[in-house]
Design a protein that fits this description.
By secondary structure, this protein is mostly helical. Among the domains are: 83 residues, Four Helix Bundle (Hemerythrin (Met), subunit A), CATH 1.20.120.1200; 30 residues; 60 residues, no CATH class. A two-stranded antiparallel sheet has the order 1-2. Belongs to the complex I subunit 6 family. InterPro entries: NADH_UbQ/plastoQ_OxRdtase_su6 (IPR001457), Nuo/plastoQ_OxRdtase_6_NuoJ (IPR042106). It catalyses: a quinone + NADH + 5 H(+)(in) = a quinol + NAD(+) + 4 H(+)(out). Its main location: membrane.
């Protein structure tokens, strides 16, 4: 019976589908292994992009163009690019993975990984067993998008709504965790900011460039005010300190 089912399944697969599977399947597996084995987080995310692209093309080949486009546009084009931007801005290296921020997370990850592998193996064994092969002809009778919408909002409407509620809850939870509430006394209004800016010691206007209206273009020469005096604000505070340090460090008798 199993041989008959496999023979019927092989007979339904066209040459193009078989070629696409044997080309994209190994690439997807290589991308998955690279994601797990890569020591750099950015490289791991790029390997995952390869796997998602291969899955999207496999969806298209198997008469599911809507799922393929969603896989490429949403997951590969939006979510993974967001991951890459976050990783490049925050900065992660291999040493970060050695720090266990949550107690027992390695054990939990190992248990969940074994459970997920067992679930995948069970699904594969059932699909390659006595289960009859069913294509997408009935679901795509009026078009792939129309058939997918009909299934989502009729037979799988409860699971679809639960998934949407879960995603909304995750988004709200992320917003709450990222929000930093300030105490009322810590909030600064515009009037306080203006007073802070114009308090004694702060110069509200732009500083004159060093060397302007002077006999030299050196950054160590102060600009000249209209009355002829030097504008000490035009010199960087570090220059006098550096000059004083050089004078103190110079051997005696060599000071200028």
């Amino acid at each position: 019976m199993t041989d008959l089912v496999l023979a019927a399944a092989v007979g339904q697969v066209s040459t193009g589908e078989a070629v696409a599977f044997w080309v994209l399947g190994p690439l997807a597996v290589i991308g998955a292994l690279g994601m797990v084995l890569a020591r750099n987080a950015v490289h791991s995310a790029l390997w995952l992009v390869v796997t998602m692209l291969c899955l999207g093309f496999l969806y298209v080949v198997n008469a599911a163009p809507f799922l393929g486009m969603v896989q490429v546009i949403v997951y590969t084009g939006a979510i993974m690019m967001l991951f890459l931007f976050v990783l490049m801005l925050v900065g992660r290296d291999a040493s970060d993975s050695l720090i266990e921020t949550l107690r027992g997370q390695r054990v939990a990850a190992l248990v969940l990984g074994v459970g997920f592998a067992a679930l995948i193996a069970t699904g594969l064994s059932r699909s390659l067993g006595t289960t009859a092969v069913a294509g997408l002809d009935a679901a795509n009778a009026n078009g792939n998008v129309q058939g997918l919408a009909a299934l989502l909002f009729t037979q799988y409407v409860f699971a679809f709504e639960v998934t949407s509620a879960l995603l909304i809850t995750a988004a709200v939870g992320a917003m709450i965790m990222a929000h930093v509430e300030k105490a009322k006394e810590d909030r600064v209004d515009q009037l306080t900011r203006m007073k802070e800016r114009f308090r004694p010691g702060n110069y509200p206007g732009p500083k004159a460039g060093p060397g302007i209206y002077a006999n030299t273009m050196s950054v160590a020469a102060p600009a000249r005010l209209p009355d002829g005096n030097g504008a000490e604000r035009s010199i960087s505070p570090i220059l006098p300190v550096r000059e004083l340090t050089e004078i103190e460090a110079a051997p005696k008798g060599t000071e200028k």
